[in-house]
Amino acid sequence: MHSVVPLAWALQNAGHEVRVALHQDALSLATDAGLTAVAVGAREHLSEIVAANPDPARLPRLTGAMVLDPTAGPSRWQAQWLHYTAMLARYRPVVDDLVALARGWRPDLVLWDPLCVPAAVAAEVTGAAHARFLWAQDNIAWLRGKQLEQAAAAPDGRTRRDPVAALMRPMLEAYGLPYTEELLLGQWTVDPVPEAMRLPADLHYEPMRWVPYNGGAPAPRWLDEPPRRPRVALTLGVGGRGRQLYEESGVSFSEVVSAVTALGAEVVATGRPGLPEAADGPPDGVRLVDYLPLNQLLPTCSAVIHHGGAGSFAAAVAHRVPQLVTPVPFWSENETARHVEERGAGLSLSVAEFTAEALSERLGRVLGDPSFRDGARLLANEAAKAPGPAELVPVLEELTVRNRR
Description:
Number of domains: 2
CATH class of the largest domain: Alpha Beta
CATH topology of the largest domain: Rossmann fold
Helix content: 40-55%
CATH architecture of the largest domain: 3-Layer(aba) Sandwich
Number of helices: 17
Structural class: alpha/beta
CATH superfamily of the largest domain: Glycogen Phosphorylase B
Shape: globular
Number of strands: 12
Strand content: 5-15%
Order of helices and strands: HEHEHHHEHEHHHEEEHHEEHEHEHEHHH
């Protein structure tokens, strides 16, 4: 939801009406941002996914099944494609609500999450133009391309069963629609991911500069005071990423913050679900905050330690902060870490090599070597070349006129 907000604002500022359709337990994510929200799906629809987001204890472990490795062989990506289509099927129960919303409100354009294919069905039923809005690299399009390549190369027309047909048939038959690839991949795709990280796919991509939005919160007074020593943001996300990093590496939260403060830096740790807290408060040089938007914190920081999530990466890029990425693989975290290192904007530290000593060594390099600040500026300059949300609005207007019925 956070990645959608700046574009939704830009559309509203240009005079367009915007409605955000999402699960009823998540409506406040839109309304808190000043957007009109519409609930879709019964409470039990997507309940497992939604419940795990604010409560990491509901998610016993993260799966690596969605982590794409383009160098892996066919057996790997074939299994992944089946996994992806099974995940897409989770959203099928909301198709009737989305169609009813589209029929009643008559949108001209539907921008949809790449996992929520029922939104494309609703657009087709009502003749609206529609496009996917990515929040990370386009694993779905890459895997679909590989699957179609294999089908075309199969001898004598013998191909594996296409799981997309089984996924889409119940939704399409109810509304008398034939299947087209646009129902899976959109008429075009809005892509806020840096072009250098884009996977090869024969699709129409419209780039957009990712303007980071992390929600709102009152700004604490201490942020207005210049830090007396280098400040490091420690943000390992919600949904179990930080907890999994500590559990799988065997390194405790206390050891991590001690490694940072031993370098003469102070650490601000945000989003601490399930992490232990000393009864006598945090040690000197450590500030613990339950929630603080990165847009407020990062301008005061000399470095940021994060798990490779797209939102954390985008915020660090926008504020030109060197990064130490500790990728906890879920979607494209490994690719984010690789990109940061290639651009000289920071270093990475995998779960397998994560120790307090390794963290101290690499963070010390990030803080002490000015070249990483140069690399952070390079990333920011590259990102600035993509059109911002306001610049994208007239492009979307033109594409909407061209594609709606």
